[in-house]
Amino acid sequence: MTSKRQTDSNAQEALVEKKTLHENTSYWAKTPRISVRHFQNLPAQTCDILIIGSGISGALMAEQLCDGSRGVMMVDRRQPVRGSSLDSTAMIQHEIDIPLHLLARKIGEEKAMRAWQRSRDAVRSLVELVQNLDIECSMRAKNTLYLSGNELGSKALKAEAEIREKASINAKYLDQAATQSEFGIDRSASIVSRDSASANPAQLTAGLIRTAQARGLKVVSPIEITDVLPAGDHVACATAHGQVIVARQVVFCSGYEFLKRLESPQHSIISTWAIAAKPRSAVPGWLKDYLVWEASDPYLYLRMAADGSIIAGGEDEESSDAFDDSKKLAANTDTIVEKIEKLLGISLYPPHSRWAAPFGNTTTGLPFIGAVPGLENVYAVMGFGGNGITFSKIAAEIVNAQITGEKDSDADLFKFPT
Q1: CA 139 to each of CA 76, 82, 196, 212: distance values in angstroms, whole numbers, following the listed order
Q2: What is the spatial distance between Cα 411 and Cα 123, in angstroms, rounded to a whole number?
Q3: In the chain, what is the greatest distance between 2 CA atoms, to the nearest angstrom?
Q4: Is 149 helix (H, G, I), strand (E, B) or coil?
Q5: Is residue 213 part of a domain?
Q6: Where are the beta strands (DSSP E) in 39-134?
Q7: Could you point out which of 7, 37, 87, 199 has its C-alpha 20 to 30 Å from the C-alpha of 59?
Q8: Mean pLDDT across the stretch 63-92?
Q9: Which is nearest to 294 in space by CA: 140, 164, 186?
Q10: Residue 204 contacts by C-beta under 8 Å, 6 or more apart in sequence?
Q11: Residue 278: what pLDDT?
């Protein structure tokens, strides 16, 4: 199903920056068990916590916040689980887009190490959570193969492996001969690591929402929030239909459709492209257990899905609307296929799914999570880059701590710029 650009029939300016999230059909939109029951009209106009957004960020937030002691409501202007989470390739990596040794130069070694450690712990925690909740979403723990490329060569990857080991993050450096021997790939170097995973992001999101619903979460769609106004110890939220929802706390989990007042030179929207394709020829036996990405610009990233399809993405472009270009969709996804075939020495059938989407990124590769400056009792999460699912887990933990008045020792790493 192709989503069309939605326009606001009212002249009223919306609170969030709207984006067309799907130019084509993602692989996950065709999979089963991705719908959740929901109210079409507001069952109440008050709640303790209002979550705006029903993607993976909102779902993890709801699972964390729904403890039986608070009334939690989730609203979305789309059908639940039909936003940007469908665009994910669901490579659930602990590795942050900016390598550890480079992030250390930006924010200091101690903070960079903490960010990477927290990311690793989030992946481990998420895999355990899915197992404990018995959510069927093809969740699998995986290794990662990080290949040298046009941005980082063998010397840089060796330095990267060394600082990861210093931070107690698993990393095994392989030179050109070892990379060729173990993986059959001709690159000058690589890093092999543990503590990553993959899943069906739509089934994961839906499963988490159903878990939260069993604890009292109310999901309402379509509801579009157009304004928020903190008033004392409450927040009034106006909807596009002229209603008002009053909550004690509001959490924006609207993905790349961020709060306009949070526009920042440290945050930008980037376009990306992805494919799902079945192999024509045999694939390397190791691939089912690995996520693969490279130190290049633009970089290629890929993995195998449960049905044997190769899921891959890349050709990222510093543009907020390039994803909307149908010619680029065809050209860039063809390029991704060619790169996969060359890298792995295999042949692919034409992709059975091609899609394009925007995503938020920051100058440090770290997301913005927590209280919104100048808006009492309003929280937001944004700028997840290529680690959307991993950072969403961290966001749920940090925001829950802030709402309950507890201290999260890493909250300072992800706070909004002021």
Answers
A1: 25, 20, 11, 19
A2: 17
A3: 65
A4: coil
A5: yes
A6: 46-52, 72-75, 91-92
A7: 7
A8: 93
A9: 186
A10: 56, 59, 90, 130, 135, 137, 139, 389
A11: 97
The closest of 93, 88, 87 to 293, measured between CA atoms, is: 93
| Strand pairing category for 140-147 and 234-239 | unpaired
Chain centre distance of CA 236: 28
Written as one letter, the residue type at 232 is G
Residue range 99-132, pLDDT digits in tens: 999 999 999 999 999 999 999 999 999 999 999 9
Contact 272, 355 (CB under 8 A): no
∠ CA(209), CA(210), CA(213), 5° rounding? 85
Handedness of CA 364, 368, 370, 374 (dihedral sign): positive
Query: What's the rounded mean pLDDT across residues 155-162?
Result: 98
Residue 285 in any domain: the answer is no
Helix, strand, or coil (residue 359) = strand
Can you read off the two tokens belonging to residue 180?
A: 């060729």
Q: Which residue has the tokens 């079409």?
A: 40
Instruction: Flag whether 66 is in a domain.
Output: yes
- Domain presence at residue 107: no
Contact 72, 47 (CB under 8 A): yes
Mean local confidence (pLDDT), 180-202: 97
Q: What is the pLDDT of residue 320?
A: 78
Amino acid letter, 98? I
Helix runs in 216-322, H state only: none
Domain span at 256:
27-88+202-262+365-413
What is the domain-level CATH number for residue 46?
3.50.50.60
Query: Do residues 279 and 337 lie in contact, with contact meaning Cβ atoms separated by under 8 Å?
Result: no
Query: What distance in Å separates the CA atoms of residue 60 and residue 91, rounded to the nearest whole number?
Result: 17
Asked if residue 338 lies in contact with residue 32, where contact means CB atoms within 8 angstroms, the answer is no
In whole angstroms, give the CA distance from residue 298 to residue 151. 9
Query: What's the domain count of the chain?
Result: 1
pLDDT of the residue at 22: 38
